[in-house]
Design a protein that fits this description.
about 210 residues, mainly alpha, Arc Repressor Mutant, subunit A, 2 domains, about 0% strand, disordered C terminus
């Protein structure tokens, strides 16, 4: 049992006393959340499991490097994201994750499919929505890794800009810039695909 200790307190126990129970509590605390993120990022459950294990191995190995006053969750996601990128480089045959899930995060402005394909679809348009989802998966997969990482953390994982900035080790303004660039690229690809652009996306380049 962790006794209601914070993430940082549990990690502190791991650092000071090699407390195995404290480390296991951290693993269990983030097991579902982090595995879900990795599975969606990588699009492969087996790869996600491997990366999850590698992430907590790195947490154990780098526990002495954790800075006092820092929050554990962004640090954990930094390690996990880097491990996921490394896994993708080792296996480029991954398939893209679904981004058509609303997370409800502060900075979540709606799913990419809704933004690109519009919302309020009728039953007659269900096929178009499915096609749009497939298109979005492919288009996001083609984005540069830096843009895709920011997009995944904010749009899918529901992180606040400042949290994503901590994970990626970049300023908040850079997170916003990367998101903006990612959306511009998606908008451009959407237009070139011949699909009708919803009103909600018009003027995105002027934001």
């Amino acid at each position: 049992m962790d006794g209601g200790l914070s993430d940082e307190e549990l990690l502190g126990r791991c650092r000071r006393t090699e407390d195995k129970a404290a480390f296991e509590s951290l693993v269990h605390r983030y097991e579902r959340e982090l595995f879900s993120y990795l599975r969606r990022y990588l699009g492969n459950a087996e790869m996600a499991e491997d990366v999850f294990q590698a992430t907590f191995l790195q947490v154990h190995l780098k526990r002495e490097q954790f800075e006092e006053g820092r929050r554990f969750r962004p640090w954990l996601y930094t390690i996990a994201t880097n491990q996921a990128i490394d896994a993708q480089r080792r296996n480029r045959r991954h398939r893209m994750v679904s981004l058509d899930h609303r997370t409800g995060g502060e900075d979540d402005v709606g799913s990419l499919v809704e933004m690109l394909a519009g919302n309020g679809q009728t039953a007659d348009a269900e096929m178009e929505v499915e096609e749009a989802r497939d298109w979005v998966r492919s288009a996001v997969d083609d984005l540069p890794e830096s843009l895709k990482s920011a997009l995944m953390l904010v749009y899918h994982q529901g992180m606040k800009y400042r949290e994503a900035a901590d994970v990626l080790g970049i300023p908040v303004g850079t997170v916003k810039s990367r998101l903006h660039s990612a959306l511009l690229k998606l908008n451009d690809s959407w237009r070139r695909s011949g699909r009708a652009l919803p009103d909600a996306m018009e003027g995105e380049g002027d934001a």
